[in-house]
Amino acid sequence: MRAKLAATPSLPTQTDPADKTRLPRPTPRALAELARAGRTIYHLEVGQPQSSAPQAAIKTAQEQVGSDRCGYTAARGEPPLRDALAAMYQSEYSVAVSPGRIHLTPGSSGAFTVAFMAAFDVGDAVAVPASCYPCYRNLLQCYGCEVVTLAVDARYNVTAAELAAGQAARAAAGLSPIKGLILSSPANPTGAMLSPEELKGLCELCDATGVQFVSDEIYHGIVYAGAPRAACALEFSKTVILINSFSKFYSMTGWRLGWLVRRPRPTIWPLQDIRLLRGCCARINHPFTPPAHLHCPPWCNTIAQSLNSIRLPFRPLVCMLYTI
Ligand SMILES: Cc1ncc(COP(=O)(O)O)c(C=O)c1O
């Protein structure tokens, strides 16, 4: 890809020339010009569902905006939605989660900002898979953490084996141990998914070795027909910080509404004390009060079908990106 972009002289790029780890990135204006000239541009940088938000959510939001003063929310978000999420974990994954552990956030991005701040200190070594959502790396660097890149296996996953190998390599090099691990399953950008057994093994290793696992489950429900069940880290770990969002499965990217499930008490975890989340999640969070909306947005039966229809052209594209 580097060679192809370099061979297009009229394509301005934004890459810092000092940063040898990054490919040249064309500017948005250059891409718009290419699109106007008839070139097909695949926007892999924005994960945006094609569907709109559930009609029930839109209707309730319209009613609420018209009738409510829409003030600040409770620090952790409004109770009805948190109760509905707790009910969803019980019915979908057979996991009992107290609604008190659930914090509503401005998207999962908002959840990362508080979770990383609460869980890690400057200088902590925090691991991410070699292929992962780039914002993990950027945010950890902002917070002064050392980002440790873990090699992925042949299926683009990080399992307990890759984490153990990463720890062993650091120990051999006399470096501090890995303190945290962030990954998503299903993953962005590869679509790789851990089996329930692999997720269990990873959770058990993290719990046993004091690695704070942050499980990003934003793509749960967006799987090919016939794919194995996407397990939830809460099934296997008492110490995981789980992050999720209404952006993808519920097709509500612009609503900026996500959530975080914190560790159960007793825990020395300052989130609830420092009240970082006071009033900073979206006010319009009643649309999902009936748990049924959480379980089955109107299009969920069609997700697997439409994913299967794009699978054939998409898969070679991903493989190509990872071989150049
Ligand atoms: C793996 C992953 N996590 C989190 C996010 C951020 O989503 P949100 O809209 O909830 O902030 C994205 C967005 O593309 C993502 O791919």
Give a description of the structure:
By secondary structure, the chain is of the alpha/beta class. The protein has helices at residues 2-6, 28-36, 55-67, 79-93, 107-119, 134-142, 160-172, 196-209, 271-274, 291-295, 300-323; strands at 102-105, 125-129, 146-150, 178-184, 212-216, 241-245, 258-261. It has a single domain (73-301), classed as Aspartate Aminotransferase, domain 2 (3-Layer(aba) Sandwich), CATH 3.40.640. It has eleven helices and seven strands. Strands 1-7-6-5-4-2-3 form a seven-stranded mixed beta sheet, sandwiched between helices. Strand 2, helix 6 and strand 3 (146-150) form a beta-alpha-beta unit. Helix 5 packs across helix 6 (134-142) and helix 7 runs parallel beside helix 8 (196-209). It starts with a helix and ends with a helix.
List the helices and strands and how they pair.
Blueprint: H1 2-6, H2 28-36, H3 55-67, H4 79-93, E1 102-105, H5 107-119, E2 125-129, H6 134-142, E3 146-150, H7 160-172, E4 178-184, H8 196-209, E5 212-216, E6 241-245, E7 258-261, H9 271-274, H10 291-295, H11 300-323
Parallel strand pairs: 2-3, 2-4, 4-5, 5-6
Antiparallel strand pairs: 1-7, 6-7
Helix pairs in contact: 5-6, 7-8
This protein binds pyridoxal-5'-phosphate.
Residues 47, 107-109, 133, 184, 188, 216, 218, 245, 247, 253, 258 line the site of pyridoxal-5'-phosphate.
CATH topology: Aspartate Aminotransferase, domain 2
Tell me the total number of β-strands: 7
Structural class from helices and strands?
Answer: alpha/beta
What is the number of independent domains?
A: 1
Mean pLDDT: 80
**Cα-atom Rg, whole angstroms?**
21 Å
| Unreliable runs | 1-11, 273-279, 287-293
Architecture (CATH level 2) name = 3-Layer(aba) Sandwich
Give the cofactors and ligands. pyridoxal-5'-phosphate
Helical residue percent? 25-40%
Instruction: Tell me the name of the CATH class.
Output: Alpha Beta
Give the termini separation: 7 Å
CATH superfamily placement: Type I PLP-dependent aspartate aminotransferase-like (Major domain)
Following the backbone from N to C, one meets helices and strands in this order, namely: HHHHEHEHEHEHEEEHHH
Strand line-up across the major sheet: 1-7-6-5-4-2-3
Strand composition percent: 5-15%
User: How many helices in DSSP terms?
Assistant: 11
Globally, the shape reads: globular
Largest sheet: 7 strands, mixed
